[in-house]
Amino acid sequence: MRDSYLKQGFLKSLTKTFIVLGIAFFAIITILLTSSKAPFGLAFSTAATETRQTVKTKPLAMRSAYTYQREYIGAVEADQRSTVGFERTGLVETLFYNEGDTITSGTVLGRLDTAALDASQQEILARIKQSKAQLALATANYNRIATLDNEAVAEQDKDEARESVQSNQAAVEALEAQLLQVQVDLAKAELKAPYLATILERFVDEGIVVTPGQPVFKLQKHGSYEVRVGLSARAADQFSAGQQVDVLIQDSPFQARVKSILPAKDDSRTVSMLLTLKPPFKGIRPGDTVRLMLSSPIKATGAWVPVSALQEGNRGLWSVYVTVPEKEKLNQGAATGTGVIKRRSVTVVYTNGENAFISGAVRDGEPVVIEGAHKVVPGQAVMILDAARDNA
Fold this sequence. Notes:
392 residues, 4-stranded antiparallel β-sheet, rod-shaped, 31% helix
C-alpha cells in the first residue's frame, strides 16, 4: 500500500510540472507575438516574397506600322581596272615592274627589242639625205634653165627639169613618211602606264614574243572606288542616279552616291546598282564586302519586344510572358512590386536580330517580361522590376 501511494504522488507531481512548463511556453509565445513590430502573417508573407524570382518588365507600346530593314550585299571595285599590252609584235626585251608596284601615268613599263627598227631608221635617214641632195641638184638645174632665153632652151628641157624637181621632192616626202612610220613603231615598242595605278598581275617575262594587244600587265587605277550591289527590281526602283546613300564596309560607315542603275538583270536575276564611294578611302580594298541597308515602312498593328522576351512553344508557335496583379490580399493589401506570370500567344511579324515586332493577344501598356523570362513559368508569383522606371 505504501508503494502504491508513493507512485500515485509521483505521477501527480510530474503532471503538475508539465502543466507549468506548458503554461510558461504559451506565455513566452504570446509575449513574442504581441511585442513584434509586424503581424505574423505579414512577416510570413514578406519572407515568402523575398524568395521569389525577380523579372524585369516593360510596358508594351502598340504601333500601327513597323520599319522593315533589308540588307543587300555588294563588293568594292576599283573605278577602273584594265589589262595593258604592246601595240605591235615583238620580242620582250625588258619589263621594269612587278606585281604590287605603284606606277604613275606615262611610266615606261616595258620595252620590245628594237634592233630591226633602229636599222630601218638609219637606212631611211641615209636615203632621205641622198634624196635631198638629188632634189637640191634638180632644183639648181631647173633654176639655171629658167633664167635662159626661151630661144636658147627648148620647152622640153624646161619640162624635164621641172619634172625632175617634183620627182625628187616626192621621193623625199615618201622617205620622210617611212621614217615617221618607223618612229611610230619605235614608240609602240615601249609600253607606258595610262594612269596612276598599282600592278595587280604580270602575265609575261622577258624573252617572250608577244602579239598586238596581248596582256602584259593588269592594272588597278588609284583615286576612286565603286561599289556594285545586287538589288531586287522593287528595291532598285527606290533609288535614282545622284542619290546619296550610306553603306557599311567592314562594319565601318561610308557615304556613297548612286552612279547608275543597270537596266537589265544579271545572271543572278538581280539588278546591279553602281555606287561611287566618297573619300577618305582608308582601309578600303577592292573585293571588300559592302552592306547596304534599305528601310521600308510596313503597315501592321503590333509592338516591339526584345528577342530575349520570346518563348518558343509547340508547333513553332511563339509567346511572351506578362505580369498581372496578385489576387491574394494581405493584411496591408497586395505586396508592392509583385505579380503573377501569364502567357500570351503572339505572332512574330518581323525581327531585325535584336528586337521582334509581334502581334496577337497583347494589349497596349501591358507589362511584358524582357529579362528573366527563362527562369519563370506561367502562374508563378514574381518580384517585378520596371525597366521603364529604371530608364527614367
